[in-house]
Amino acid sequence: MERGRGISGAEADGDVMFFVIGAQKAGTTWLHRYLAQHPEVSSGPLKKYHYFNKFHGEFAVGGARPHFQGLRRLSALSAVLRRAGRPAGYLRATLAALRGRGDYLGLVRGDRPGARAFGDVTPIYSLLGRAAFAEMAASYPRTRFVFIMRDPVDRLWSHVRMRARRLGLAPGEAAFDKMVFSRLNDPRFLGRSDYARTITELEAAVPREQILYLFYEELFSDASLRRLCDFLGLGFVPGTYDEKVFAGISAEAPRDWLLAARAKLAPVYDFVTARFGDAVPAAWRLDPGRAAPLGVAPALQPEQDDAPGRLSRLGTAARAIIARQNDDLGRIGLRSASRGALMVKG
User: Fold this and answer.
1) Over the stretch 154-180, which tens digit does the pLDDT of each residue have?
2) pTM flag (> 0.85)
3) Would you say residue 23 lies in a domain?
4) Is residue 116 in some structural domain?
């Protein structure tokens, strides 16, 4: 295994290094705060280190890795040192990386004496391939991986709302509607809901007993945190379950968007249902024709003067998206669990 410039050969004292690899918008920030406050966890200076993705690349399949590994690894370590302020500044951090005065593992380990676990919570790691996961698993004598899944459409809508907030877009604006539907063709948005690819790549490199799968819909509970603590070898500490972090703008998803998104992500629902069976939360949109999750009534659209015209535009956009799905699914890489590429009829 190639440890690379950023990982030292430190030996373990029986502690565990964990990686929370996603999914984005599935409670990872809340979980990081919980772990950082746990008395048996040593928390480093950052939540998201964005280290392994810098030199392994995203959406990798099999053992493929980008070229210029040495330069990419140096840049990754320099970025981590700079963001942690050890030292601050691009030039100083780069010189520190070149001279071996800092390493990724040393930063992540933190400095809490007697800690039983430490880790890296970087949701974009869910887009990595098996070569990256293999290196991560070998980077410390005892490693564990945690992957949280949220209803794929709900996760995507939360991601879209977060993007809208960052862009300053408001529901009802033409630019908001355009952005919302355009993300149904964006692999960086859809890919984060492609749990089938993540699990396939992860399990190709990491033994099943070193992986814990959790569901967002059940995460905020004693039961899920007990499973997590047992998995990491920690004593159980209750969480603060009513805490909200990084909430997006308040907006109901258009029904046409929900149905189009559900069709796009049908292979993911097929895969997760086949793999986890009855463990999949009932709130998931397991019925392809159901726009709202189980037990949630479809939201009423607010009355506006231009509501009929806006809904008509949304419907037209949705039909155009569905018409392009056969081509897009092949490009993005989503596959049905039971048969080749999913063919969607408009």
Assistant:
1) 999 999 999 999 999 988 899 999 999
2) no
3) yes
4) yes
